[in-house]
Amino acid sequence: MYNHILMPLENSPSDEAILQHIRPLARMTGGRLTLLHVAEGYAARTQTSLGLTESEEMREDRAYLLRRQAELAAEGFTVDTILECGEPVDKILVVAEREGCDLIAMSTHGHRWLSDVILGSVASAVRHRTFIPVLLVRAPQKK
């Protein structure tokens, strides 16, 4: 069914929603997991073109991915990690295709209407631009 699941993570508390939801699905299907984080700060976006070294933010993002990978591997999952730099939607779609993922699973913040226009919606853009199935799980609202 789902042999390779891509999970874009934000390095935020909202990641827990998709991680909790995907564990039983991946266990049931035996699917491999790929955790992706897209660093989008100035240093990340210009690292290659300006020959910059990895920023503190990127080092923290890489460490976060590796912690999540270790956590899931300890539970018996096969897990890879990828840290990309740039525009999140574009990178999610490129990685999903390149890695042969058959499901993109991500959490959403549940913005509506004007918030989506102002803040944008990575989840919405991903689901509109791919033919790969997308599983969206709404993260709990901040209080």
Number of helices: 6
* Cα-based radius of gyration, to the nearest Å: 15 Å
Tally of DSSP β-strands: 5
- Identify low-pLDDT runs: none
Structural class: alpha/beta
Q: Give the strand order, joined by hyphens, for the main sheet.
A: 3-2-1-4-5
Q: What top-tier CATH class fits best?
A: Alpha Beta
Q: In this structure, how is the largest beta sheet organized? A: 5 strands, parallel
Outline: globular
Percentage of residues in DSSP E strands = 15-25%
What does this structure look like?
This protein is of the alpha/beta class and 143 residues long. It is 48% helix and 22% strand. The chain has a single domain, classed as Rossmann fold, CATH 3.40.50. The protein has a five-stranded parallel sheet with strand order 3-2-1-4-5, sandwiched between helices. Strand 1, helix 1 and strand 2 form a beta-alpha-beta unit. Helix 4 (88-98) crosses helix 6. The radius of gyration is 15 Å and the shape is globular. The mean pLDDT is 88.
Quick tags:
Rossmann fold, alpha/beta, 143 residues, globular, 5 strands
Q: How would you sum up this structure in a few lines?
A:
This protein is of the alpha/beta class and 143 residues long.
Q: SSE layout and pairings?
A:
Elements: E1 4-8, H1 15-29, E2 32-39, H2 42-50, H3 56-74, E3 79-85, H4 88-98, E4 103-108, H5 114-119, H6 122-129, E5 134-138
Parallel strand pairs: 1-2, 1-4, 2-3, 4-5
Helix pairs in contact: 4-6
